[in-house]
Amino acid sequence: MKQHAYIAGVGMTRFGKHPDRDLKSLAAEAVQAALADAGPAVGAPEIAYVGTAGAGAITGQTCVPGQVVLRAMGLGGIPVVNVENACATGATAFHQAASMVTLGAYDAVLVLGMDKLHHPDRQRTLDLLTGAIDVADREAVMADVAASIRAAGLTPDTADAGRTRSLFMDIYVAWAAAHMQAHGTTRAQFAAVSAKNATHGSLNPRAQYRDRLSVDEVLAAREVAWPLTLPMCSPIGDGAAALVLVSARRMRQMHERNRPVRVLASCLSGGGAPGRPPLAVTTAAAAYDAAGIGPDDLSCAEIHDASAPSEVLLYEQLGFCSAGAGGDFVEAGHSALGGRLPVNTSGGLLRKGHPIGATGCAQIVELTEQLRGETGARQVEGARLALAENGGGYLDDDSAAMVVSVLAREARAA
Known about the structure:
Blueprint: E1 5-12, H1 23-38, E2 47-51, H2 55-59, H3 65-72, E3 80-83, H4 89-102, E4 108-116, H5 122-130, H6 138-151, H7 167-183, H8 187-202, H9 215-220, E5 223-225, E6 228-229, E7 238-247, H10 248-252, E8 261-270, H11 279-291, E9 300-302, H12 308-317, H13 326-331, H14 348-352, H15 356-372, E10 385-392, E11 401-409
Parallel strand pairs: 2-3, 2-4, 9-10
Antiparallel strand pairs: 1-7, 1-8, 4-7, 5-6, 8-11, 10-11
C-alpha cells in the first residue's frame, strides 16, 4: 500500500507590514502555533525544511536562515534544509517534506516558510523580485515582454519596470493583454477577481488587507500599468507559516487529536523549456494523476494570484474551466464562496499578502483548515478535496518553478 504524509499541525502569522519584528519573531509565532496545533503526541520534529526567498537580500541573513530561527526558539540540533525557489519557495519546502515522509525517511517533519520583504530602501525589494528572471539577459527578457505587449495591440512602456514597480507587473500586463485580445476578456472581469478575493480576505483575520472592494472600486483605483490597477497586483509583505507533517503511523498515535488531512499528491516542476505547454498545465496533470482525481472533484483551491489576470489564466490551465473561459468563470461567481469551486478563500495573494517564502505554506494552512471545517465565515461547506498551486520566477514566458499539491480530508488516518 502506498504511504502518505499527513498534515498534523498548522500555524501562521498575520501577513502585512511588521517593521518591529524580525524573522525569528515571525517564525517563532508560526512554528509554535503549528506544534501546539499538532499536540505533544507528535513528538519533536526529526528534520525541518525552511523556505525563504528574501532573507539574504532584505535582512542580510544568508546561508543558514533556518538554523538561526529554529535555534532561537529551542529547536536547534535537528537537520535543517534551507529552500529557495522563487515564489514557489514555501510550496517547494512542503513538497520536499511530504516526499521524505512518503518515502518513509521520517515520521515527523517541520515545514516553515518565512520572509520580511518591507525595507526602508524600496529598491532593495524591487531588486530581489528582479532576481527571479535571468538577470544576465535582462534587456532581452524585457524586450520580449515589450514585444508581447505590442503584439497584443498595446503600446509597451516598460521603462519603470523594476524601478518604480516590480517588473513582474509588466509580465502580467503582457499575459493580460494577450488573453483580452484572444478571448475578449474584459478589464472588469480581471477586476472581478480582485473584488472576489477582497470579499474572501475580509473574512480572514490573518489577511494583510481586509477591506471589501467592488468591481467599480477596483477599476477606479490607481493604475499601475494598464490594464492593471493597484488592487489587481499582489502586495509585498512580512510573515511566516508553518506545518507539521507526519507519517500514518504517527498520525494514528495522536488519538483524539487525529484530524487527518492527507497529502494525496505534491508535484514539483521546473520551467525553461520553450515550446511545451504551460507549466501549470503539466504540473496539474501530474498531480491529478498521482492523486487519482480530476479538477471536477475539487472542493476548493488556493492558487498563485500574483495578479488578477494570473488567476484568470490559472482557472484555465488547472482545468477549472475551458480555455478562454476564465473571465466568464469569475464573472459568473463560480470561484466565489458558494460557487462551483471557491478559489482563494484566504483572500489569495492579492489580499492575504505575499511574503514570498511563506506564501506556499500559507496556502496549505488555509486548505488544511478548510478540510477540517475550521475557517468560520469563509468555510466551504463539505470541503473534501483541495488543490494548492504555487508558481514563481520567469523563464521563456512561463513560470520557472511550480508546485501543485492535492489534499484530502479523511475520517481517520489509515
